[in-house]
Amino acid sequence: MAVAAQDMEMMAAVMHEVKNPLALVRANIDLIELDDTESEHRKRYDAMRRELNKANDILAEFISFLSAPRREDRECYLRAIIAEQAARYDCVYPVGKVFKIRDETGGCPISGDQAQIGLVISNILKNALEACGPGPSIHIRIYRDGGGVCAEFKDNGRGLNGGKADKPYSNGIGLSICRRIMADHRGRFEIKNADGGGCVVRIYFPPYEGTAPGKG
Fold first, then answer.
1. pTM for this one?
2. Could you tell me if 171 and 58 are in contact, meaning their C-beta atoms sit under 8 angstroms apart?
């Protein structure tokens, strides 16, 4: 069910307000640690900071989703969107070395909102890198599937925990947002363990039918 614009604005405002006390808690943890001479407590301080970082990541993803402008479908190309998102990591994870992109569609277009699709791909890449640890390798294949276009992301990470599809993601919000965006594009979002280890994520877009304004 669609959320009214005023409700979206209020939810975004609440998210921003929640970030302020989280920042205050972290600052106080830092101050307490400075006065604490017990080295055995440092692991606890680090654990608290990690949990606060997770909370901030959840808020950042949710705020990004809520703050996104009304969806506008246009002709776009998965190869270009993926390359743009991968380039954000290029200073640490070079495109062509860590990210290996193969487009088998011959440049077949899709119809969608480039910013929202970019958010999905950014989430996939970020979580793949987190799951891989040192020496990441992410193979990305773009191919035609039943008239539509599919992008497959296969990593050499730890795979899914017990087969649960939300475990490689930093939080369930990110996974929910990806699925919501793909459903809005009449597509699919699939994630599972890859043969031989690691994880594979597939996003599918229906056949291109020409440019048309998004329904939002």
1. 0.68
2. yes
